[in-house]
Amino acid sequence: MPEPTAKPNHPAATDATSRNTGDEAGNRMNDEIRSTTEAALPASEERFRQFAENTTDVFWILNADTRQLEYINPAYEEMFGEARELILRDVDRWRELIHPDDREEGTDMLARLRAGENVTVVYRIVRPSDGKIRWIRDSGFPIRDRQGEISRVAGVLQDITADKEQSEALAESEERFRLLIEGAPDHAMFLLDPGNQIIYWSTGAERVFGWSADEALGRNGELIFTPEDRAREQEEKEMQIALREGVASDRRWHLRKDGSRVWIDGIMRRLDDANGNLRGFAKIGRDATELHQAEEQLQQSHRDLETRVLERTAQLTALNEQLQAEMKGRMELEHEILLISERERRRIGQDLHDSLCQELAAASLFLQTAAHKMGKKNPAGSKALEDAARIVNDNVGLARDLARGLHPVELTSQGLANALRELAFRTSQLRSVTCHFECPRQVRIRDEVIALNLYRIAQEAVTNAVKNGKATEIRMKLLRNRKALSLSIRDNGKGFAVSKIGSGMGLHIMKYRADVIGAEVTIDSVPGKGTTVTCCLPGK
């Protein structure tokens, strides 16, 4: 017999009915969710497409079973330099584009992804379009289906060439900085933060100051300053100057760990970030103790030398003053000797003129008178007396000329010109000699000593021209201008070599007389073309 049908109000019947109703409701809900999901899927795929096709990164999706590339976005062409169709047809094309040195690491990625790993690798590619090398970061991950099986693998490719180059440049810069710092053991280099705390301490600083980096880091920058500089707050003053001007000098004695002192020649420099904000300070200095001590010794030597120079200068000044006094006394004595000599010459000339010439003239007159009385009685004796009278009279002329040479005419006022004119006249009386005197303008000389010495210089020059130069023409010229008084004597004699100038006594006497009156004598002579003697007296 068949089992009776359960009534609806029976508990068992009620439970069955409820289960049927619940299953139907669940199925309806799943259908609604599926319908909603299926309806939302195209919109989601569209958003993904828009994002993937407009980003600069490369998105790729690969079927894990078939190893067929299902999707790769357009950014691939820009990054890899070739059309997507090539890689879509043959996924192994990827391996060919990887740099040979990175190929093993890059191609191992797919096996790891299929094994369930999330993998990120960095490798280089060689773009087939231009041969350029680009650095790529490839981040891949597995995609599982509803059963948890890996059905696909996907990833994102990013071109990190710029970052890599910047990183390498930074690493290279840091290496150069390290080599620079470590390669200068004689230079102490350390960094301070804005609070004056040491944040970097080089090996050079360890060697110069004695503190290791572990001992120095975190300590105040006053660590190396001497007690007296700390009392003067010298470190704070340096920092203020560096803050204001960008750099501050740091040349002073500093303190070492063992308490000794070292002379540092260095600077403190302000450090700013890219926005100009203060980051801290850098201090760079070298151990210049030996150089500083050498400079101090050199300065002391200079001071000692200056003292000795001053002492020696004082001694030389005193000796010079003594020498000047002796020279002045000698010049005065020489001047006096010249005056005495000139007075004696004048006296002798005066005696010749007033005594000997007169006596000789009287003797000539007596002989002439005696010859006249004896004329008819003794013609021969009368003739002899007349000859004797003529000889005596000739000697009177010679004595008178000698007297004029020893005692020239008055030399004051215009006397020098007259005396030189007389000298030219007497010289012209000599056989085969013509002597001219020129004085374009009136020349007055109130100092008899000057006039006398100028006359003697001219007399000596004329005598040398006639006696030694065998001149036939002599020209004397006296001229005054605003600057000097000039006397020149030019002859057409045989002249002499320049090397012999000053060797003769006459030339020496001319220079000596010029020195006495403060004049300068120059002698120009050319063998066969004569001699010119010039005496120039400044300011007269």
Question: Portion of residues in helices?
Answer: 40-55%
Unreliably modeled segments: 1-22
Beta-strand proportion: 15-25%
Beta strands, count: 15
> How far apart are the termini?
179 Å
Rg of Cα set: 63 Å
**What strand line-up does the widest sheet have?**
2-1-5-4-3
Oligomeric state of this protein: single chain
Q: Can you give the mean pLDDT?
A: 82
| Tally of alpha and pi helices | 15
Helix-strand sequence? HEEHHHHEEEHEEHHHHEEEHHHEHEEHEE
Kindly name the structural category: alpha+beta
- Main sheet: strands, sense, barrel: 5 strands, antiparallel
| Global geometry | elongated
Write the layout of secondary structure elements.
Layout: H1 11-54, E1 58-63, E2 69-72, H2 75-80, H3 84-89, H4 93-97, H5 103-114, E3 119-126, E4 133-144, E5 150-159, H6 161-182, E6 187-192, E7 198-201, H7 203-209, H8 213-216, H9 227-231, H10 234-245, E8 247-255, E9 261-272, E10 278-287, H11 289-373, H12 379-406, H13 415-428, E11 434-438, H14 448-467, E12 473-480, E13 484-491, H15 505-517, E14 520-525, E15 531-538
Parallel strand pairs: 11-12
Antiparallel strand pairs: 1-2, 1-5, 3-4, 4-5, 6-7, 6-10, 8-9, 9-10, 12-13, 13-15, 14-15
Helix pairs in contact: 11-12, 13-14, 14-15
